[in-house]
């Protein structure tokens, strides 16, 4: 039986939809607000439970998707994200049985702030030890959890670092590049962005599920991997797609608002997941297209 913690979040909810389609494997979805999940139709193999009732020992596989959800929420939580991440991570670790396998959804943010090029196996993190208050709490929270997991080499724990993520359930209220672009399509608004080049590796729930499946089949080693696709996508490609297929008007500004910070290349060349058998079959532009099509459908339905 599989459990997903944080099943109402952007990543958790999309992964839940993929895993729920596998009728042969029972799935329990945990959320702070179970009523938000019950509003949706789920197959018979899915149960919905309150987060406070979770005990890892009941499950063969636990996927921890608890997080802030959006860049705006990350900013609002500040240092509290450290406590939230630690609390639920330690709860899983303290209640899992000898046969429980644990997947923790980490982030590419653990590599720090230098994304002038794609990160790789040799990338290093520089932390201002005498000015820790100036270092963002979110990557520290993820890095702390990963460190805790590596100190338990006998446990079956997978940390999956997510860089870009694209799903049709994207919130048009969110503030990051892809959400802003989808909102421009849905509301038929001019898309304002900087002229700075940018590369993103947008994966989806299918890629995430595939990495988890490969890890389980490989014997569930204690390891951290980066999530990647066949190929990242450039800002130029995304803007060309938006203009050509959806009629979006593009306006370049000298200093466009960038809510998630400046990341010229938010992608990874670290291919550890390949050693588990993971072979990506889609590239980022393929994964993003349905998201933008869904936004266009929202506009046609009169909700924009």
What do these coordinates show?
Pfam families: Epimerase. The protein is an alpha/beta fold. It has one domain: Rossmann fold, CATH 3.40.50.720. Helices cover 35% and strands 17% of the residues. It is built from nine helices and 14 strands. It has a seven-stranded parallel β-sheet with strand order 3-2-1-4-5-6-11, with helices on both faces. Helix 8 runs parallel beside helix 9. It is globular, with a radius of gyration of 19 Å. The N and C termini lie far apart (39 Å). The model has no long low-confidence stretch (mean pLDDT 91).
Instruction: Tell how many strands the DSSP assignment holds.
Output: 14
Task: List low-confidence stretches.
Answer: none
Within CATH, the superfamily carries the name NAD(P)-binding Rossmann-like Domain
Placed side by side, the strands forming the largest sheet appear as 3-2-1-4-5-6-11
Question: What distance separates the N and C termini?
Answer: 39 Å
Query: How are helices and strands ordered from N to C?
Result: EHEHEEHHEHEEHEEEHEEHEEH
Mean pLDDT: 91
Summing up helix and strand content along with how strands pair, one would put the structural category as alpha/beta
CATH-defined topology: Rossmann fold
Strand fraction: 15-25%
Helix content: 25-40%
Query: Cα-atom Rg, whole angstroms?
Result: 19 Å
* Rough outline: globular
| Biggest sheet details | 7 strands, parallel
Q: Helical stretch count?
A: 9
User: Quick one: CATH class?
Assistant: Alpha Beta
Oligomerization state: single chain
Q: Please tell me the CATH architecture by its name.
A: 3-Layer(aba) Sandwich
Organism: Bradyrhizobium retamae
Pfam families: Epimerase
InterPro entries: Epimerase_deHydtase (IPR001509), NAD(P)-bd_dom_sf (IPR036291)
Protein name: NAD-dependent epimerase/dehydratase domain-containing protein
